[in-house]
Amino acid sequence: MALITGASAGIGEAFARVFAEHGFDLVLTARRADRLEQVARAVAQRCGIDARIVVADLADPAAPAAILAQATDAGRPVDVLVNNAGYGLPGRFLDSGWDEHARFIQVMMTAVTELVCRSLPGMIERRYGRIINVASLAGLVSGTAGHTLYGASKAFVIKFSQSVALEARRHNVHVTALCPGFTYTEFHDVNGMRAQVSQLPTWMWMDAGTVARDGYDAVMRGRILRVPGRANRAIALAARLTPEAVLVRVMAHHGRKYRMVERSPQ
What we know:
Helix content is about 50%, strand content about 15%. It starts with a strand and ends in an 8-residue tail after the last helix. The protein has helices spanning about 10-20, 35-45, 65-70, 100-125, 150-170, 185-190, 195, 210-220, 230-240, 245-260, and strands at about 1-5, 25-30, 50-55, 80-85, 130-135, 175-180, 180-185, 205, 225.
């Protein structure tokens, strides 16, 4: 059984389709019950698998344990975990108060870590498990002004995934940090950045289905770090080879264009 967070739209919904097509039963979780039900019904009918939903908000510290309890209440173990849920917090760091930052950290880092911590022992015991932690190309490049915690949280997810992958691989448990770049989803509509990112050239964009299929193939092959798309891989390589001082200046320029929106301080 595959447990997928943030499964009501975008990359999470695409992962639901991909895993269903490969015969996995699903437990899909997100905040929107109506969208989850639509996704679950569609993939179940199309692929002949069982798809259940768990409505939860990962900003609630109690949510990860509750999600796993409901996912496994029928005695079915979690063989696959896809940590996909996430969002962006636009504006400068001090445009948001601590409560908003704390919720962001809970969703983007703490919940990811807890779901892995609670799922991994059973995978190791059964000697089979697949974990995809959806990070971002933003975690592989220099930080920017605006969306201050986003790249930092994704860098954490990447390093965390790499370490767990090395610890778990001898037990036939594969862990992949998936690092997509700009992807056609609701992400930029929700965080208010659609107008800014729409200025980007089309070659920088990928569709959610392609990203999800790439992530599925990567984790099944035991790839620890995967950057989908040639353009994104070229950007990641350039970031590794470019001196940090130069990279900071480049990211500062692009951050002003594509990362900043004005928000009223809270």
